YqcI/YcgG family protein
Amino acid sequence: MEAGNNAIAQADRFEVSDWKSRIIAGRATGAAVSAPAWLDASYATLREQVLDPAYPCFFGTMAERRGEMFYSFVNGRDLRDLPATMQTFAELALQPEYRRNNIAVFFEPDPEPLAHEAYQALFWGILQRLHDVDPDPTADQQPDPMDEAWEFSYAGVQMFVVCACPSFRARHSRNLGPGMVLLFQPRSVFVDTITNKVIGREARNQVRKRLEAWDEIPAHPDLGFYGDPGNLEWKQYFLDDANAPIDDRCPFLKRRRQAQQASPADAQAAQTAWRHASRDEASGAHMAHAAHRPHEPHPPHVPHPPHDGRNEHERPFAHAGAARGDDN
């Protein structure tokens, strides 16, 4: 905790004009971080897209312009620093001056882009690993992901998560550069600081209209808004590049030890699914960092009836100030 307090104490060094001052790596921030050479190009691509006047989510555009973004990175498949990075971010997000900040975690680009399914397996494996080591003891009492009240959380902070990756060909709003990018958005980002109400429906409708022009595909049928009847957050984290409704159960389990309590048949199915995903990832991308792949089994997909979630908007970024109308 001392290191985390030090990061908060150094927060006055976060500069709007210097994006590298807002990099978090483990318990270090800004100048104390040794950023990899590949990060500059990945960040430049994201910034170029987000600052495009036609970019659908003007919330994200304003967040980038105002310096209300934190950044981090993962070299290869080395996730050792990611839990500490997310804890540092969570501690900062609980401070009033940073309650509107998101964090973008850049992953080192692969020699060749992976198949969409390989990115999907990698994404859910990362969320599972974070959850398994979550320092917040209340993580054990989270609702099931199939519950409308569920949202991913870490270190006591609920966060909407967006996975952007280069395998998106038609859904351009979810392709933000040469490598995978995970965007973690605390729930406080979606709440107006004055009215304490969620971002208005009109603002969300504006984002929807802009998405129709930016993407080459209509909005996904599983997109919704937290709190709406039938809405499930996890279905919006990683989308396909078509518009087929997601009918499976969430590939995320409450703590890995619950997966170990599954039946032998389920455990065997999980092991097989993870091996297949890992093999597809390696053969499809000629990965130079295959040794760093997670070894935990990927949770099995169990058929689940489709829900009647209502469409709302794509949320690649968000900004609480939009509810006041100052981002339009």
User: Anything to note?
Assistant: The longest helix spans residues 264-285.
